[in-house]
From TrEMBL:
The keyword Transmembrane applies. The chain crosses the membrane at residues 57-84, 104-124, 136-158, 179-201, 221-239. This is DUF3307 domain-containing protein. InterPro entries: Phage_phiKZ_Orf197. The keyword Transmembrane applies. Pfam families: DUF3307 (PF11750). Keywords: Membrane, Transmembrane, Transmembrane helix. It comes from [Clostridium] nexile.
Length: 242
């Protein structure tokens, strides 16, 4: 389990935190052409290979740490397999983004990446002597999950339901509030203080009283808040099961 968790953490770093908004947008030719900022995307193009390859190279950067905990041959083999499969999976993701809801494609994309890591560990094993830091690794995993992955998932869900809504960045005020909301939810859940979670929702709702008079905003607010809370609790449950 330590090995698997370590590889998942490295995956999160490479797939989310070493991928800029521009790379994430422009590797998908459909989205980049829609934003009008990319002149290299053809009318019928569905993937921008330049940005896809750039993302794939940045993705494997965190996995270089494997050279310090396993043999060079095995590390090279594992990194190569992860790199090639990542390109294949992301190519498929860009293709299906043309025809399917972004939320479903995003979830399928991550499921394939995580599944590939699990499958790879059935053939390649290594000794990772970080048992003393296992709890710290779990905390890092939770922190990484609460930030960008959840924000991106919620953003895609809102865009699927409200196509005309503006895409939010990770540092937009709405995303930042959601991040703090999820962090506090996990902290309160850890200390079994679930009533405090209700207080968070109450304060957030009170601060948005005037905005909630608008029907569309009210629906977006409710969907975003509940999704954020559910994701935080799911991540906390995963933490307890690890």
């Amino acid at each position: 389990m330590v090995n698997y968790l370590l590889l998942i953490v490295l995956h999160l770093l490479g797939d989310f935190y070493l991928q800029t908004t521009k790379v994430a947008r422009c590797k998908n030719a459909k989205k980049s052409s829609a934003c009008g900022k990319c002149k290299k995307c053809g009318k019928h193009s569905w993937v921008n290979w330049k940005y896809l390859m750039l993302h794939s190279l940045l993705y494997i950067a965190p996995f270089v740490v494997l050279y310090f905990i396993m043999g060079a041959v095995y590390a090279t083999a594992m990194i190569t397999v992860l790199w090639v499969t990542h390109i294949l999976i992301d190519t498929g993701t860009c293709y299906f983004n043309r025809k399917n809801k972004q939320t479903l494609v995003f979830l399928a994309d991550q499921a394939l990446h995580i599944g590939m890591i699990g499958l790879l560990l059935r053939f390649v094993t290594f000794s990772c002597y970080i048992d003393d830091y296992y709890v710290a690794l779990k905390v890092v995993f939770v922190g990484l999950m609460l930030l960008m992955p959840c924000s991106i998932l919620i953003n895609k869900l809102l865009q699927d339901i409200y196509p005309e809504s503006e895409e939010m960045g990770i540092f937009d005020i709405g995303s930042m509030i959601g991040i703090m909301e999820r962090i506090l939810t996990v902290i309160f859940a850890y200390f079994d203080n679930f009533p405090a979670v209700a207080i968070i929702i109450t304060i957030k709702t009170w601060a948005r009283t005037n905005d909630l008079k608008e029907s569309e905003f009210r629906n977006k607010y409710l969907l975003g808040t509940l999704t954020s809370m559910v994701l935080a609790l799911v991540i906390f449950i995963i933490y307890k099961l690890l």
